[in-house]
Queue: 2 jobs
Job 1
Amino acid sequence: MNVDLARYHRQMLLPGFGEAGQRRLQGSTVLLLGCGALGSVAADMLARAGVGHLVIVDRDFVELSNLQRQMLFDERDISDAIPKAEAAKRRIAEINSQIRVTAIVDDVNHSNIERYANGADAFVDGLDNIETRYLANDLAVKSGRPYVYGAAVGTTGMAFSVLPHTTSDAAWETFEGGSLATPCFRCVFEEAPPPGTIATCDTIGVISSVVGIVANFQVTETLKILTGNFDRVSRKLLNLDLWANEIMQLDIAGAYEKSDCPCCKHRSFEYLDGKAGSSTTILCGRNAVQLRHRQLSQGVNMDAVASRLREHSDVIANEFMLRAGIRDQEKNYEITLFPNGRAIVKGTDKPEVARSIYAKFVGN
């Protein structure tokens, strides 16, 4: 395809871009993991910047409550019942017809992420749960490709870039004779916190402005990576709370040396191998799915989960379990949660739907 570079003129004037940088973007592929709040903003901006191929993977459909912060979608997508990945592809075609978009409507997990990442130069995080972030990090380290983490909930957000320490001759490992590799996600967050300890957008809400800031930080980092400006990639973790007027850059450069990271130091990819994280079982005849964590060093903070869920539904809780009715995507579900993290989601026989309900309303 002939690409008219005139549309990128203002961008090409910037240091580190020029025509050569723009052509590098045009020849690049980015895997967008999720196309919700962060992912939709990132997809929009990367498309406008001229990244040649966007692979967008998301399991959900557009619903009314998304429109407050998910910038690619509109009311037509809701009335047409369009999956987010396909709705994003449709909208991006109207924004930049010079790029290619591959829309994949699926739940990202250890059995498919390597296939979906085939040919991708970088992974951008638009995920809604920490387990899949460990999975993406495993693949980034194993394959020697960058992973740009981001998260936003309430009025707070975080983001940082992973240029993984690899056994290959990655461009940042040999940059001007010195390595520019960074700590990986697991160096910084060694273990996943217990379910129920992390708030989610579905329990405490989210302000759209924090989504925009985090996603645009991710996009900028991705553009640095794709144009080969590895020395410009931030070595700090962006941490902000817009309501408290706090914006910090936390130095995490030493995390690699200080940690005994099982991922990037020992090259143990537990999430990618399917040995860590959660497993699911369809409960025959009950229209329900059981989720069980393979690794969970601490129990669930049941009081915290119950407190958040009471904002949305009636909750029955005791020392043995918690049960609540949940409404999501215009459908009703019932979740029963146990102190060890095990849960039964009633109202579906699809594991990916059950995982989504768990991630949204319990967390992690």
Job 2
Amino acid sequence: MKLIHRFNFLSLLLLITLLAACGDSTDQETTESNASEDESSNTDDEIVTLDAVSFLGKGDPLTATIEDWINSVENATEGRVEINWRGGADVIPIEEQFESMNSNVIDINFTYIGQYQSDLPISRALPLSQLKPWEERNSGFYDFMDEQHNEIGVKYIGRWLTGSPRLWLNEPVETVDDLNNRVIRSTPNYTRFFDELGISSSMIDPSEVYTALQTGQVEGFVYGGLTGPRKDGWTDSAKYVLDEPFWTQNCTILMNNDSWDNISSEDQEAIMEATAEYERDMVEYYESQFEEERQTLKENDVEFIEFPEEEEEKFLNTAYDVEWESLQSESSTELVEKARELATKEEG
């Protein structure tokens, strides 16, 4: 009988030992699994440092708010995400920046759609939006663009510049037809619109515009926003601004998808909230700059002119319709129609 009890005791002891071993193994596997899941994102104590470049250099008036975005992101993540803005084309040539981000050489690119629209044609809908950045987030246009950018391996964070193009002329105009046969200094993205208006586009290097205006080689120019032309002396000859702003800036904040995935979900959410708030401040900043410049321009005898209501409608409809129709040839009808609906949908 004692032998049987001894055998049962040994069996029980062996069973407890085996269960303990299995428990240790399970705990180890669970720990390893959790470690594996967290390996791709930052923890509370880990700092993620991201390298960024911009197509415009530090010190350029148009990059004035980039540091504000960087500070807002670092504050929102309590320092867990740090951004090293290395500079502009002096660091990486403009035409190589997007590919550098895609290949993980850099993490963030303050760019414009001209650098990647061949890979993502629907990105051409960005400057056609008639909404403010926060309205785009409410209408669904932001989410739509985020999904589309994900198709080419990048995270669409938001916008970092605002302002609409205007025509600056050496003689006033009263109707859309008055623009016919005008020679205007331009860039390729305006060609379709200008062709429709009968404008002859002249692609002149910025360094040569002043002389071209002085000599009558061109009769005006197109420029995004109001700040810049006066300081460059261009308004010495072009003293009439057609105050019919169209389109908007196409500058975007992009991040490599791998870099984005390396950030914790908590900090990702913090970055997006900080960006939404930054966009409001950014728009307010540039609009105040434009208003100050408007007053200065008037003091320097630059005249702002507007079309009559019917001519204004004709001008603006042409500006948007030409581009949406052109986009139909590069993207699916479904995508273009959805983008147009979301880009013109009223807030709320």
